[in-house]
């Protein structure tokens, strides 16, 4: 019996990438009510929730934190929202639907793993959100540079959802600070999983004053990144009970910039 070599694919972990994401597609497309799911984002999300509850847990934002963020979308009404880490498309469907309902135009879902991007693209299509949600395959830092500097598709971040791996939150935020796309009273940052598994370096930065951030930059070797410690952030961390345990979202507004 021969095996198929997969030299480029990431290693499965105990909670993801073990085949469950493709199994989810079989589950959804094998449902007797599949026709009712077409063009119905809420029913697609409910079907994903059912799979998560009855079959294999999925590392989606889920209903509790998801509802809090859709509340923020209704309040801020971004025309474009960007997410870092799309996985199987749950947050892209939930937030893309909310963006559309609030008069917005675009939700960009940046996902490094092409298999996950393929799964999410199918589910986004099924939900009827193809015109609003675009899945971009690649690593967040490279795609952000492409979107901002090369294609000039984004000149300001209105709302950003950070939900890839926690150690990447701070370098990606520094990249956005360097590219000058965070604007006072306009940009809103939402970071998931800041309590579990936790994003201590990101939380320290978004909660620090400019003086404290200047001290952090002096202490660390940040090269080749160029953070802007002079941005003044206002961050709060609402907490939630989720299926995975207690967690929090870091909600950050840009409230000013110190001139030094
Ligand atoms: C927690 S999951 C995202 C969950 C999704 N936002 C949701 O709530 O439905 C994290 C995802 O980030 C992706 N990821 C990890 N590193 C990345 C990177 N550098 N750029 C883009 N995506 C990345 C992983 O492949 C994984 O699919």
From TrEMBL:
Belongs to the class I-like SAM-binding methyltransferase superfamily. Cation-dependent O-methyltransferase family. InterPro entries: SAM-dependent_MTases_sf (IPR029063), SAM_O-MeTrfase (IPR002935). One of its GO terms (biological process) is catecholamine metabolic process. This is catechol O-methyltransferase. SUPFAM superfamilies: S-adenosyl-L-methionine-dependent methyltransferases. Keywords: Catecholamine metabolism, Methyltransferase, S-adenosyl-L-methionine, Transferase. It comes from the Eukaryota. Its EC number is 2.1.1.6. The lineage of its organism: Eukaryota, Fungi, Dikarya, Ascomycota, Pezizomycotina. Pfam families: Methyltransf_3 (PF01596). GO terms for molecular function: O-methyltransferase activity.
């Amino acid at each position: 019996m021969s095996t198929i070599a997969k030299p480029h694919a990431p290693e499965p972990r105990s909670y993801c990438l073990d085949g469950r994401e493709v199994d989810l597609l079989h589950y959804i497309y094998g449902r007797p009510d599949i026709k009712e799911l077409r063009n119905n984002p809420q029913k697609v999300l409910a079907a994903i929730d059912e799979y998560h509850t009855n079959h294999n847990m999925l590392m989606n934002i889920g209903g509790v934190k998801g509802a809090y963020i859709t509340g923020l979308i209704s309040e801020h009404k971004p025309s474009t929202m960007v997410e870092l880490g799309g996985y199987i498309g749950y947050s892209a469907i939930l937030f893309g639907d909310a963006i559309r309902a609030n008069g917005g135009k675009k939700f960009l879902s940046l996902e490094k793993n092409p298999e996950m991007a393929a799964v999410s693209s199918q589910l986004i299509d099924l939900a009827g959100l193809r015109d609003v949600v675009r899945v971009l395959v690649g690593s967040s830092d490279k795609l952000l540079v492409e979107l901002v500097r090369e294609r000039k598709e984004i000149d300001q971040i209105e709302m950003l959802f950070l939900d890839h791996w926690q150690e990447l939150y701070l370098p990606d935020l520094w990249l956005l600070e360097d590219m000058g796309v965070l604007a006072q009273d306009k940009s809103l940052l939402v970071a998931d999983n800041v309590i579990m598994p936790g994003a201590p370096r990101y939380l320290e930065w978004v909660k620090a004053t400019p003086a404290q951030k200047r001290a952090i930059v002096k202490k660390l070797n940040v090269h080749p990144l160029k953070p802007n410690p002079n941005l003044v952030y206002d961050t709060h961390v609402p907490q939630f009970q989720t299926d995975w345990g207690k967690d929090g979202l870091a909600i950050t507004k840009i409230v000013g910039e110190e001139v030094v």
